[in-house]
Design brief:
Structural class of chain A: mainly beta
Largest sheet of chain B: 6 strands, mixed
Distance between the termini of chain B: 37 Å
Number of helices of chain B: 0
Strand content of chain A: over 45%
Number of strands of chain A: 11
Helix content of chain B: under 10%
Largest interface: A-B, 31 and 28 residues
Helix content of chain A: under 10%
Shape of chain A: globular
Oligomer: heterodimer
Chain lengths: ~110, ~110
Amino acid sequence: DGGITQSPKYLFRKEGQNVTLSCEQNLNHDAMYWYRQDPGQGLRLIYYSQIVNDFQKGDIAEGYSVSREKKESFPLTVTSAQKNPTAFYLCASKKDQGGTEAFFGQGTRLTVV
Amino acid sequence: RKEVEQDPGPFNVPEGATVAFNCTYSNSASQSFFWYRQDCRKEPKLLMSVYSSGNEDGRFTAQLNRASQYISLLIRDSKLSDSATYLCVVITITGGGNKLTFGTGTQLKVEL
């Protein structure tokens, strides 16, 4: 089945540790996105990438890093510089054409203690 | 000013009611618009695309007003199963690709 997979579903880390969230898609989509969602809030864009080896900062990129070495993969690293990393992280992908919908993974709930 | 703004609600309505949500966007160059639905603790899923000519899917009608820079969603004869958060999405083409910006979401609770 084609889709977008995020792993793990739940992740616990100690404060001060970097952590990498996985996002893989087999939809042959060019564009991939990372969002953060806090309780009762909307989705805020962290990073997005239109092509391999290129990515753009979103609205809240500080404390995060990404890579896009393969079309299928767009991992997100939450660094120790992120002041409040506990959140629900969602990855999405879409075709290159502007008017097409984005598909989401099931998300990763990160808790930093 | 936020790029995309929505009334967060919650909207508490009785079953069978008609309810309307609005969403405003600030970038006049934005090109594509969608409504997504998100159930509690789940990922968002596409509800419908939004066009200037308006589009209807059963009990749901979406409309885009480019001049006033807002999009709307109308739900008729609301069902208990419509209870969810509704997110508007605006796509803007940037130098780095298609930027998808979400509104904060409007929470709908349909009650007996």
